[in-house]
Amino acid sequence: FTPVTLLGDSPYFVVVHPSVPAQNIKELIAHARAHPGKLNYASAGNASLAHFAGALFQSRAKVELTHVPYKGSAPALIDLLAGRVEMQFGSIPPALPHMQAGKLRALAVTSARRISAAPSVPTVMESGLPDYEAVLWMAVLLPAGAPAGVVNTLNAASAMPCWRKVWSRAPPCRTYWERCCATSCRNGLSWHALLVFVSARGLISMP
Description:
Elements: E1 2-16, H1 25-34, E2 40-43, H2 49-61, E3 66-69, H3 73-82, E4 87-91, H4 92-100, E5 105-109, E6 135-142, H5 148-158, H6 171-186, H7 191-200
Parallel strand pairs: 2-3, 2-4
Antiparallel strand pairs: 1-4, 1-5, 1-6
Helix pairs in contact: 5-6
């Protein structure tokens, strides 16, 4: 692939069901070591980033957790709320309201720094695992060997003000992206290779 730009990144919360006695990461590690394999953590599926975040946590903390893959993050969260699984490396937006309602307990955030949405939640790093970080990054990629002009044009488009407003759907930005992508296609690049991420965000419709 040819990288165009990094659009953003998003960490996870290490969240547990209230039935789990741990109040912080150190207590979670102690609990997991005392009950190897008994703590189940949910993810959006095998090979999802949440799966890898859990595997990395096990490696760094030297604990044994049981991975429970789901077909998406929504059913994983539902079962966590119901207490059918004990913990999750969960996305920030869906987990936050349940934390605020007391239905889930956040022990840490997986980024290198605390986040503004939950400033009281410490990072895993500052909680005793200094070499732990798990962050989902979102980027625009083109096929290998993409023309430099196309790469530069799309890179410039990603820096427009509407992208800085959490990928706004403002018509000027959308029109500009559509024009850039049409140019890219004329240069022989695949719509699917070019727009898989943008389409997922709902900014541009795939033909």
